[in-house]
From TrEMBL:
Name of protein: tRNA pseudouridine synthase Pus10
Source species taxonomy: Archaea, Methanobacteriati, Methanobacteriota, Methanomada group, Methanobacteria
Keyword tRNA processing part of the UniProt annotation: yes
Keywords attached to this entry: Isomerase, RNA-binding, tRNA processing
Active site per the UniProt annotation: D234
Pus10 THUMP domain location: 80-153
Purpose of the protein: Responsible for synthesis of pseudouridine from uracil-54 and uracil-55 in the psi GC loop of transfer RNAs.
Enzyme class, UniProt record, top EC level: isomerase
Positions of substrate binding: Y302, Y371
Domain of life: Archaea
Catalysis performed (reactions): uridine(54) in tRNA = pseudouridine(54) in tRNA; uridine(55) in tRNA = pseudouridine(55) in tRNA
Domain Pus10-like C-terminal per the UniProt entry, residue ranges: 167-406
Signal peptide interval: none
Family that this chain belongs to: Belongs to the pseudouridine synthase Pus10 family.
Length: 407
C-alpha cells in the first residue's frame, strides 16, 4: 500500500477511534484501493492496519452510518413483502433511499477533513439493495426509465413505491358530434360539482378521453389516465378518416404488459357508434410531446358545409381556389383563453361543390392550426382572406368534419 494512502487510512481510523464499519472504511478508499466491493476493501484495509499494529478495534457503532448496513437485509425483505402485497407487475426497477441527515453530515465531514472524493453512502445502499433484489426477483435494475422506483426509508423503516406510467399510442375516430376530446369543467362550478352540471363537475357527460381511458385504466389496474392528443377538433366536429393520433398515459399501472389487441376490441365495443380506435402500441414518454409539437406541422383535410346569405355567381366561387396564405387573428370565440396574435397558415388545396344556390360544400387541405369556421365567416375581418370576403356575402359554417390528419 502506498505510504500516502496508509497515512490517510491511519488518520481516518484515529479520527473515528476505530469505530467505522468495513463498508464505510472501504467506500472512503474506493478510488485508491482495488477490491470487488467496499466490504471486501474495508476488510483488506483493516487487516493491513492489524498487520502493522496500527489498527484500533471497533468497539462502538460506526461513526458514519451508525451501523446502518446491518439493517440492509431487513429493509430488502421489507421491499419484497411490499411488492408482493401490492401485486405490482414490472420488469425493471431502481432503488432510492432516505437516511438520517446526520449520517450525510458526518460522511461529508470525513470527506472534507481528509480530502476524500468518493461516492456517498446512499449510492452504496441503493446499489447493494438493488443487487440483492435483482437476484431475488429476477428483475433488472434500470437507471434511465425504470418501471418502478423503490424508495427505502431508513429513518422510518418504510418502503414507498413509485409506479411510473405507461404510454400507449393509437388513433381515434369520433363518429358523432357533441363529444369533447377531453373533460370540459362546468363553467359555473369550475369542476367542483353543482346543480347545473348535475354534480358531475363537467359540461358534457362523455368525452373521447373517458370513452377510451376507462377500459385502459381497468386493464392496467391503473390509478388514472391522461389523454395527449395531436391537436383537437371542436365538440360539434366529427373526426373521420384514419383518425387523430393520441397518446394515453396510464398512471400507476399495476399491470404493464396489457393485451393491447384485446383492449382495442373492448374500447370499440364499449364506445360503439361514438368513438373508434385503431391498433395500439406502447411508446416512450417523449412521444406525447412529439405528437403535440408535430400537430402544427401537419396538413389536415376538412369537409365544411357552408351556408351563404346571398346567391353567388359561379365566377366568384372559382376565386376560392386562389386562397393560399391566410392571416388569422385569434378568433373571438377563443380569445378569452388564447393569446391575441396573428397566425399565418397555408391552404394547400380547396375544392368546392355547389349543393344549391346558397349552400356549398368545401374540402380544404390546409396547415394545422388554421381555424376553419373563421376562415369561412371572416370572424369580423380577423381572418384574411376569407370565404365570406372572397364571395362578398355572409358565410357560415353549418357543419364540419375532419377527414384526415397527416402526421
Amino acid at each position: 500500500m502506498e505510504l500516502q494512502i496508509e497515512d490517510k487510512l491511519v488518520k481516518v481510523i484515529k479520527f473515528t477511534e476505530g469505530n467505522i464499519c468495513d463498508r464505510c472504511l472501504g467506500r472512503n478508499f474506493s478510488k485508491s484501493v482495488a477490491g470487488s466491493g467496499n466490504l471486501e476493501r474495508g476488510e483488506y484495509l483493516r487487516n493491513k492496519l492489524e498487520a502493522s499494529n496500527q489498527n484500533i478495534p471497533k468497539t462502538g457503532s460506526c461513526y458514519i452510518c451508525n451501523d446502518l448496513f446491518e439493517s440492509l437485509d431487513k429493509m430488502t425483505n421489507n421491499v419484497v413483502e411490499v411488492l408482493k402485497d401490492k401485486q405490482i407487475h414490472f420488469s425493471n426497477f431502481l432503488v432510492g433511499s432516505r437516511v438520517d441527515s446526520e449520517i450525510l453530515k458526518r460522511e461529508e465531514q470525513i470527506h472534507k477533513t481528509f480530502d476524500i472524493d468518493v461516492e456517498n453512502i446512499k449510492k452504496e445502499i441503493n446499489r447493494e439493495i438493488g443487487k440483492e433484489l435483482s437476484l431475488r426477483l429476477s428483475k433488472e435494475v434500470e437507471f434511465d426509465n425504470p418501471n418502478v422506483v423503490l424508495m427505502v426509508d431508513f429513518k422510518t423503516g418504510k418502503v414507498d413505491i413509485q409506479i411510473n406510467p405507461i404510454f400507449i399510442e393509437s388513433r381515434y375516430r369520433k363518429l358523432i358530434r357533441g363529444i369533447p376530446q377531453t373533460k370540459w369543467p362546468c363553467n359555473k362550478c369550475k369542476g367542483k360539482g353543482c346543480e347545473k352540471c348535475n354534480y358531475t363537475g363537467k359540461m358534457y357527460a362523455e368525452t373521447v378521453e373517458e370513452l377510451i381511458s376507462e377500459d385502459a385504466i381497468k386493464a392496467a389496474k391503473g390509478a388514472s389516465a391522461k389523454f395527449h392528443g395531436a391537436g383537437r377538433e371542436d365538440i360539434d366536429v366529427k373526426m373521420l378518416g384514419k383518425g387523430r393520433t393520441f397518446v394515453l398515459e396510464i398512471k400507476e399501472p399495476k399491470i404493464r404488459d396489457i393485451d393491447l389487441k384485446k383492449l382495442v376490441e373492448t374500447v370499440n365495443k364499449h364506445a360503439m357508434g361514438k368513438v373508434e380506435i385503431s391498433e395500439m402500441k406502447f411508446v416512450a414518454k417523449n412521444r406525447r410531446a412529439v405528437i403535440k409539437e408535430s400537430s402544427r406541422d401537419t396538413y389536415k383535410i376538412y369537409k365544411a358545409t357552408v351556408e351563404l346569405e346571398n346567391e353567388v355567381d359561379n365566377s366568384l366561387l372559382d376565386s376560392l381556389k386562389s386562397m393560399k396564405i391566410i392571416n388569422q387573428r385569434t378568433p373571438i370565440r377563443v380569445s378569452h383563453r388564447r393569446a391575441d396574435k396573428i397566425r399565418t397558415r397555408e391552404i394547400r388545396q380547396l375544392e368546392y361543390t355547389k349543393v344549391d344556390s346558397k349552400l356549398l360544400e368545401l374540402v380544404i387541405e390546409c396547415e394545422g392550426g388554421l381555424y376553419i369556421k373563421e376562415l369561412i365567416s371572416s370572424d369580423e375581418n380577423r381572418s384574411q382572406p376569407s370565404v365570406a370576403g372572397m364571395l362578398k356575402t355572409g358565410a357560415r359554417c353549418v357543419q364540419l368534419d375532419v377527414l384526415d390528419v397527416n402526421i
